[in-house]
Amino acid sequence: MKSGFLKAPFCVGLTGGIGCGKSTVAELFAGHGAGIIDTDAISRRLTQSGGDAITSIRAAFGDDYITAEGSLDRTRMRQQIFADADAKRRLERILHPLILQQARQQLDRLQDRRYVIIAVPLLPESPAFRQLIQRILVVDCAESTQIARVITRSRMSEAEVRSIIAQQTPREQRLRIADDVIHNEAGLDSLAEQVAALHRSYSAMQSSI
Ligand SMILES: Nc1ncnc2c1ncn2[C@@H]1O[C@H](COP(=O)(O)OP(=O)(O)OP(=O)(O)O)[C@@H](O)[C@H]1O
Ligand SMILES: [Mg+2]
Q1: Using CA atoms, how far apart are residues 206 and 204, in angstroms rounded to an integer?
Q2: Considering the entire predicted model, what is its pTM?
Q3: Cβ(119) – ligand 1 distance below 6 Å
Q4: Distance between CA atoms of 160 and 55, rounded to whole angstroms?
Q5: Ligand 1 binding pocket mutation candidate from 24, 28, 174 (most atoms within 8 A of CB)
Q6: Would you say residue 208 has pLDDT above 70?
């Protein structure tokens, strides 16, 4: 390494509504050798038994929101968040700084990559994550496609998927912040072609950090 100077790799924030194809796209980028940071996975680790967020969540919400095993009671918290926007904000104030910190640590370990994809489902509503990234990539598809794919994947009801979509940033608003858009309406071949084209352009881009 040159004189202790670490150059941050070029970072792309990957976002999109539920079931639009973020995880599938991240896997395709990983196949091209991109570094991948998954903020959903970080969040799950922070809230599992012994996770770094548990003490703060217990202090802010009470023992009722922690299971007997010591992890976040996700069902209970989800119900609370649906009923109370302030609870959502309080949980985010605990989780987001921790997620950001861990994403930075992972980024430090990905210095050798040409670029890094950071999957952040909440990117449109969480400006803090924009500090980490130079570009926003949105995976987009029609709402009817989102619903069909999520129902097939998880046996959620249509009403449940619709209520999650209603809580997320509207599609038009998400597209407005995009530097690049992947249209995930056709099959996986079309998806792979779009990822390959973006891989070529991201490989040529330089970090401005
Ligand atoms: N182009 C495609 N053709 C067919 N199936 C697809 C396509 N893209 C994604 N899928 C499928 O749709 C489902 C949702 O995709 P994926 O899990 O990648 O979305 P996601 O945005 O990560 O969802 P979440 O918001 O729940 O994390 C998966 O079962 C995936 O295999
Ligand atoms: Mg996913």
Answers
A1: 7
A2: 0.92
A3: no
A4: 30
A5: 24
A6: no
